[in-house]
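Box 3.1 A note on notation
Throughout this textbook, protein chains are presented in two layers. The first layer is the amino acid sequence; the second is a token string describing backbone geometry. Keep the layers aligned when reading.
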Amino acid sequence: MRDAFISTTPLCEEGDWVAVQVRLNRERLVAHILEEHGYEQLLPMVKATRGRRTREQVLLPGYVFCRYQVRPFYRIVQTPGVLRFVGIGGRPVAIAEDEVDAIRRIAESGISAEPWRFVRSGDRVQVCAGPLLGLEGVVVHLKNAVRVIVSVTMLRRSVAVELNVDEIRPIGSDDAGMAFSSRALETCA
């Protein structure tokens, strides 16, 4: 009996953000139904341009965030299109508030963003200018562009935002090893 209790006990508390894995292309439907049933939900959307067409796309395909309720009127897993909670052994695990906030800010900023592979290592940076001021992430250099990657650890998913090198500054213990222009360091200091 004790094992059954442990396996159903969530690894999060009332009001924590949790991630729900959903069937692809069902993200909007799931978010809508959860909202109708009183859940605070987040489905980050961004504008994607291909050729001459611009359309909204889901920033983290296959996932919807929502606030967990311990004794819900409507169970999240009953929602059509929901596959499971992201967690351990079927138990939902809380997603860090700052990670959810970072994803929300990126989606609302209007800056070009796209889904990106999960990044484990790299240079940690902080955005020091523009609508994403204060946001932290990992920097990736791509030819003539700099991208800052914000990761949602529990989902093993990331989002890439293209920024100017002048808009970021190094943080963490390896500040000295990062190659940034002196103008960038002065701007962000």
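DSSP finds four helices and 14 strands in the chain. The two ends are 57 Å apart (CA to CA).
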